[in-house]
Amino acid sequence: MHYYIVTGASSGLGKETARLLLRPEHHVVSISRREPIGLMAQANQTGGRFTWLEQDLSNIGELPGCVDRLMQLVAASGTPALSMHLIHNAAAAAPFKALDHHSPEEISASLNVNVHAPVLLSSLWIQRIRSLHIPKQLIVITSASADYPMAGMSLYCSAKAGLNMMVRCLQLEQRGLPYGVHIAAVDPGMMDTPMQAAAREAHELSFPATAFFRQSRESGQLRTPESVAQRLIEWMSDLAVKPEADSGTVHRL
To answer: What is the rounded CA–CA span in Å between residue 85 and residue 25?
Structure first.
């Protein structure tokens, strides 16, 4: 069984990626706060397997237990794992406003979801699968926001920049290890997702880029999550065959 763990698979790119991965011999596990509607039915139709692990990623203290549940799921399946893939997709850009307008609780929740959870989950997951002599992949969904500062998105931009550096460091740590984890950061580009919709609806006084996001949609620059998910899965397959693609750079789909 090939295991694909996707965070934030309840909507957008995460949901479409999980849906397209539901094939025979694939067990897709969604780690998300909300249940991904329709994915269990999709699994029944395609012959894949699907499990939802309910978890609010902003609750950092619960993540070790979440990884315990994940590994118990793998152990209880009765079939050996042929490969393991972790896709960090969950992210939250809202609320869109200046840093000094955020409450301490908002700052903590944003950084937990966008950077602390991916870092901690990566560490815990790698620890638990270290001894498995199978192919392993860790994919971080990043954003051009890591390189381009934007007023009203300081927390999101900072988190994505931090994740990009984590990927580069992890690549150095895992490179050359027997059955090490192949790691990459992927920028999917601009898509028509709930996050984009929230950016278009934000108040221009607190988020000056609102007009840019509206214009991007009106001019047809946004791709569908389904088309991007298809490209992501194809690219992941290429990376599995050609692990030298772990170049330390951000891969743009």
So the answer is: 14
Tokens 């170049």 belong to residue? 247
Domain enclosing residue 159, as ranges: 2-193+224-252
Beta bridge partners of 49: 27
Instruction: Report the CATH number that the domain containing residue 24 is assigned in CATH.
Output: 3.40.50.720
Q: Using one digit for the tens of pLDDT, what is the confidence trace for 38-51?
A: 999 999 999 999 99
Backbone torsions φ then ψ of 245, nearest 5 degrees = -70, -10
pTM above 0.90, yes or no: yes
Beta bridge partners, 186, equal 141, 251
Burial 201-214 (b: 16+ CB within 10 A, else e): ebeeeebebbeebe
pLDDT single digits (tens) 64-114: 999 999 999 999 988 899 999 999 999 999 899 999 999 999 999 999 999
Distance between start and end Cα atoms, the chain: 27
Is the CB of residue 164 less than 8 Å from the CB of residue 146?
yes
Dist. CA 93–CA 113, nearest whole Å:
10
Q: ∠34-40-46 over CA atoms, to 5°?
A: 145
The answer to whether residue 164 sits within a structural domain is yes
C-alpha distances (whole Å) from 106 to each of 10, 20, 100, 215 are 21, 33, 11, 28
Give, in order, the Cα–Cα distances in Å from 204 to each of 97, 103, 122, 149, 216: 9, 20, 36, 17, 16
Q: Maximum CA pair distance of the chain?
A: 56
Does 218 map to a domain? no
